[in-house]
Design a protein that fits this description.
The complex is a heterodimer of chains A (about 300) and B (about 270). By secondary structure, chain A is mostly helical. Chain A contains 10 helices and 5 strands, in the order ββαααααββαααααβ. In chain A, α6 packs antiparallel against α7 (about 200-210). In chain B, about 30% of the residues lie in helices and about 35% in strands. In chain B, α5 (about 230-240) packs across α6 (about 245-265). Chains A and B meet through β1, α3, α5, α8 and α9 of A and β5, β6, α4, α5 and α6 of B. β5 of chain A pairs antiparallel with β5 (about 90-100) of chain B, so a sheet runs across the interface.
Amino acid sequence: MIQIYLPIAEISVNLLVMLGLGATVGFLSGMFGVGGGFLLTPLLMLSGIPPAIAVATGANQIVGTSVSGTMAQWRRGNVDLRMGFVLIVGGVVGAIAGIILLKILRELGQAGLMISLTYVAFLGTIGALMLWESVNAIRRARAGKPLSARRSGQHNWIHGLPFKMRFPRSRLYISAIPPLVIGAVVGLLASFLGVGGGFIMVPALIYLLRMPTNVVIGTSIFQIIFITAIVTLLHATFNYTLDILLAFLLIIGGVIGGQFGVRAGQKLRGEQLRALLALMVLLVALRILFDLVLTPSDLFSIVPVAGL
Amino acid sequence: MMMRSTIIGLAAVFLAASMTPALAQKTAPTEEPASQEQVQSDVSMREIAIQSNFTGVEILIFGSVDFSDSRTPGEGTYDVIAVVRGPDEPIVVRKKKRVAGIWVNGPGKTYGDVPGFYAVLSTRPVRAIASDEALHELGIGLIDLDFGRGTASSTPEQAYRSAMIRLKKEQQLFQEHDDGVTFIGRSLFRGTVALPVNVPTGRYTVDVYLFRDGEVASNSQGSLMVTKAGIEEILYDLAFKYPFVYGLLGVFIAVMCGLAGWFAFRRN
């Protein structure tokens, strides 16, 4: 029982619990190749960290884990720098919008509720879609049918948009507007929810832009470094909600846990991995939803005006 | 464990020193010239430093009655009420209501001056010691506390006010201890108050009132300072004075940890 006092959250937490939390989320994110913010931020809130501090500190933790992840992807040549840059430009705009939105909601006392509702909506949708897709893939594999090939190169409405750019690494020649919009949406989510946004970014790049999957993973995790770094800076500067000490504990746990997670993930098949991740995402969504629907033990809450 | 021995040690020191009035901080002259007794008091720690191992702290409030008319400790000639009060801050109280099956915060009520910490320690229930008017005048007790703007006496408002008091009590930030002060001898008294881990920083006042026959015979005021220290202080100051630099530091630490992790594990 080693207690450590957090200077910004102004509560005392168990050192081992926080290291363990970082390691668990790191393990899962390494295993599934996701940032893990969507698990970390709600878990921090459940362990008594005020929502706004959980969001800012969660973003800071993702900077650390995504640097490790990007290094590995970079060496395999899986990062499309040009696409990453366009996504980051969109992301900055989205992140600023998210910070302003969060500030307004906090003043109205609705920040916690809106964060929870957004989590439920996004995690519920993504989890359900992923589960559906992976269960079908497992069934097809069991039945011995070949997996349907990705319809690459097929044109859709996105190819009719102006401001076309060439992305040689991704072998794409498309308008800059969709990546900018995707970047902005992810930036908004990152600053509002304290997530990296990989769970939106990856499907969007694969299904909307039709980027090759390996480049998608590398590029997504690369731009997440910058988005979460900017989100961290914005939260620290305008909301004073970053707790460096807490972030440090989570990163230490996360970086170590992540390495073991990657190895564990290599032993599982892709579809099974996706199905597991989908179940986890759905569980988190349900847990948050229950908190919103169940009658709270205390209807009243108090909060300092200056703080959260 | 260490805390306890510190208190015992300090208790021994003050027992020896209680005869010397120099230790007391400030003594107000008695209001009734007829009675001679005067109260002197102090706290075991005038500076409380919140460091990374901080989990709360127990402070000792002690004092003595000079020129006491009391012959035995149990005589009950005197009563003591000690009020520890932390810096005021504005607080919003909100009540959840159900909207489309989901619990949503309703509009909040703001109180301008809510003490960040407030504890009343007394030898007996305060209402048995003095009249409601006397307590009200001195601002002793949560019922009589003035929380500044937003304070009205309408019934719905009362629910918010009592909810705030209840929540603050649950967080140990409001405390009332009816038997918190005990007389040790005919003039010596002591009481302990536990500051929880979430105590706000700032200057605290410690008011000690000596009551005789329901009237204040003498009072003494002291103070203590709660500050962050060490790494906690450095980070806190940086976060609020140079938030951008603090944010950069956070990002920098994260990037370094990420790189270190990658280098450490890449061979495997």
